[in-house]
Amino acid sequence: MAVLPIVILGDPVLHSPAARVGVVTDEIRTLVADMYETMDAAPGVGLAAPQVGVPLRIFVYSYEDDDGAPWRGVVVDPELWITPPEPGHPDPDDESEGCLSFPGERFPLRRADRAIVTGTDLDGAPVRLEVDGWRARILQHEFDHLDGILYVDRIDDADAKTAAKIVRKSGWGVPGRSWMPGVDDLDA
Length: 188
Prior knowledge:
This protein is of the alpha+beta class. It has helices at residues 26-41, 133-146, 157-170; strands at 6-7, 46-48, 58-64, 70-82, 96-99, 102-108, 114-120, 126-132, 178-179.
């Protein structure tokens, strides 16, 4: 297993829909093992294949609720269903999220409180996740990556202006930018 570089906003792989996987090969299994290693090193609660420069519809996730129960897995070729988000402005304390491809920043974003994701695991077995709260947020965030959407593409206008300033100041927004978990000192 290897820790992979995480691409930063501006790389074309993050802004285009990813391709379906179809058949899981040994190369895909190695990629997923590397994605887990990268997510853990970052550290993050989810990682989509486009974030490591691979335009395929795969994501991994790992989260521990307050009760300490682990929740970890992979979804290949996922489909997503959500309940409509509650109208209104997101609460900056309870609804902020960050992204490993926009490292070191957090912005409030209203998401649906419930989500269902279906797909397959690495053995081709069906996966069905029916979740709410932070788990629903994680699945929606990672699924967005597979459609070429970053969470900063969804934030409100005032926060979008702040994000744009960060992009300019950091030199992001262009192809080829990445960071290496465990090597680069970034707060993602």
